[in-house]
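User: Predict the structure for this protein chain, please.
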Amino acid sequence: MDETPAHPVPPSVRAQVLATEHWSLLATRSMTWSEVMSRITIHLTVTSASLVVLALVAQATGFGTGFRVMAIGLAAYSLVLGTLTAVRVHNASHDDAAMVIGMNLLRAAYLELDPGIAPFLVAGTTGDRAGLMRTYLMGSRRSTFSHVVASTVMFMNAVNTMVAGTLGALVAYAVGAGTVGTTVAGVLAAVAHLGAMVEWGRRTFGVDPPRAGPGGVP
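Assistant: Here is the predicted structure, written as structure tokens:
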């Protein structure tokens, strides 16, 4: 039995399908970072409110045992909330990289339809790490170091590091450590937390970026 040959898909239909997928990825990126920024705002609001509460307690009761207990509790709560928020930011950043690579591959498909648009594309068109960074840096020559240091992930790490150091110093002071011991405990807690988060981030983004294979499956 003869099979009816499949008709080739017109370029206009291919372009429409590709554009639909492109806008879907853009919408997903927008919703993801909107949710992440809301989480960060909540975290910073809670941390700021904790400082206000401690100031009011200090005015009412002084810096006695009650104040120290509340300070440790609020610092621990803020650190847990901040760490969970940082984990969400890390995950969102990884998902964002996958979506950026997806859009790079879509641009490659646009180039197949019309190679003449190549000079007008600023973002990357490949699914490798170079294409990923080209899109993130928008073709500029600025250092990736400044891009990483100024990222949302590092912002959260900086906030959480300060909270972790404060918590370590508060606990050391509560158990009777002197000035030197309190300072050392705070520094060690801050360095330990920052080191753990940076190492986790390095392991997360040190792997090869996801690529689309047959059928669009990474």
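Confidence is low (pLDDT under 50) at residues 212-218.
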